């Protein structure tokens, strides 16, 4: 009998505020150790935390984006644990009354759509960081990150495969960037994932789960789940029992190893933080945040399909980030809605290929949306062919000017004079009499040979449609 995998995710999204959640210290990445830790972050006696209003608004924005319950009252609690990177001996988090209640988000795997429940999302402060390198056997503590605002997003155990877990994580990753609450930088730890994994026989109650902690790569999430599921099956089928624990995934060895026994909520001795009053949010506050939200990815995708006649595949690609969607719509402002498909093709084709090759984001593209639209317009008006357009694109990417400047400088203007093309066609047919006879004898594949010869002789500048039409006439 087959085993069923059960997966839930806890995602920590670092909120894109300039200062920390309870102090005015900077959240900028990469500063010298302990240079951005103020008295509040260091938990000095007598200091009091003050909630960063922007962090609260970002939490509410996420709740609205997933159609979640947004309570008018939330409470901060003390989560008690003792680690060197937590100076207070507790973390300020939320427990019974979080900023965001139940919501959901849609994923798609292999063409199948599925709703994944979000149990809650709560605000909390990040801990510091233990440094083990270059300390001669000792550990250093960097408290720059201590107090950085996090939104912890807890899913329901609704995922049944690694593919679904990755799709969910990517959907959250896309959304938090789209609404501008997190930069989503996996390398810098702005977006981290804890994965809860268990197995069961289909229809049975949930099995004992293990938690895979602090994974910052979608690929590693997939590998960690695969390893852990196999481990669970081996343990149970060998007569053993799964221990509820927290485990670390070692990417170098592609394995998980035990870190500590998994704590329950009562182990942390949660209680409301006496230094922070309950947060009261009015309906007017919630509506103000709602009005500030951009058009959400799902709505944008549906509009691109309905208004521009794009496929769902194209719409998904063009809404993979807010910057991508803006680039596309800026192109349309110049090229016109009627050329939406051609614009989409150039973004998903040559532009995406070049961005990937040079490891650039679309915001850093050497070719602006208006400039790429200018290239598209030269294809539309038959100034250049699609093939020549790729040469123009490469020159534009190299900084050689606009489409018009490149076309003029390189003499790439398409030949549309019928008499000039006809002359080339006649020359090609006269020079290839045997191939003409073969074509007329039934070898229709020779037609492509003639097209190629005409395009070669015209240096790729003859209008392909006119070439095809004239060849058909001459060979009839």
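^ structure tokens above, recovered residues below v
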């Amino acid at each position: 009998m087959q085993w069923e995998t059960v997966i839930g995710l806890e995602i920590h999204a670092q909120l894109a505020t300039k200062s920390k959640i309870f102090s005015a210290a900077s959240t900028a990445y990469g500063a010298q150790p302990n240079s951005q830790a103020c008295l509040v972050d260091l938990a000095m006696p007598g200091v009091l935390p003050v909630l960063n209003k922007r962090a609260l608004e970002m939490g509410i924005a996420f709740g609205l984006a997933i159609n979640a319950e947004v309570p008018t009252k939330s409470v901060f609690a003390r989560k008690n644990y003792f680690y060197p990177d937590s100076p207070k001996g507790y973390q300020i988090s939320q427990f019974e009354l979080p900023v965001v209640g139940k919501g959901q988000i849609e994923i798609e795997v292999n063409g199948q759509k599925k709703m994944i429940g979000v149990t809650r999302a709560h605000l909390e402060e990040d801990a510091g960081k233990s440094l083990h390198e270059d300390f001669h056997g000792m550990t250093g503590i960097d408290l720059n990150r201590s107090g950085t605002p996090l939104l912890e997003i807890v899913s329901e155990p609704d995922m049944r495969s690694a593919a679904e877990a990755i799709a969910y994580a990517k959907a959250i990753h896309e959304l938090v960037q789209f609404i501008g609450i997190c930069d989503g930088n996996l390398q810098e730890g702005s977006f981290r994932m804890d994965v809860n994994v268990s197995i069961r026989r289909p229809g049975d109650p949930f099995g004992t789960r293990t938690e895979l902690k602090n994974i910052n790569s979608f690929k590693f999430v997939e590998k960690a789940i695969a390893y852990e599921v196999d481990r669970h099956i081996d343990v149970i089928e060998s007569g053993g029992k799964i221990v509820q624990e927290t485990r670390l995934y070692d990417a170098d060895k592609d394995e998980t190893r035990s870190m500590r026994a998994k704590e329950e909520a009562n182990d942390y001795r949660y209680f409301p933080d006496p230094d922070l009053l309950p947060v009261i949010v009015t309906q007017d506050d919630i509506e103000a945040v709602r009005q500030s939200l951009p058009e959400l990815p799902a709505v944008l995708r549906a509009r691109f399909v309905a208004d521009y006649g794009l496929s769902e595949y194209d719409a998904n690609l063009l809404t993979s980030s807010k910057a991508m969607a803006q680039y596309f719509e800026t192109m349309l402002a110049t090229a016109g809605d009627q050329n939406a498909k051609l614009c989409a093709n150039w973004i998903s084709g040559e532009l995406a290929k070049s961005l990937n090759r040079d490891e650039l984001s679309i915001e850093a593209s050497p070719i602006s949306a208006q400039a790429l639209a200018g290239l598209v317009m030269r294809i539309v008006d038959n100034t250049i062919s699609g093939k020549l357009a790729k040469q123009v694109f490469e020159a534009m990417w190299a900084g050689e000017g606009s489409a018009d400047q490149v076309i003029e400088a390189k003499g790439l203007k398409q030949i549309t004079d019928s008499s000039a093309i006809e002359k080339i066609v006649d020359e090609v047919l006269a020079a290839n009499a045997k191939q003409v006879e073969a074509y007329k004898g039934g070898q229709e594949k020779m037609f492509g040979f003639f097209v190629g010869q005409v395009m070669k002789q015209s240096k790729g500048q003859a209008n392909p449609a006119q070439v095809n039409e004239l060849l058909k006439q001459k060979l009839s």
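The chain has a mean pLDDT of 91.
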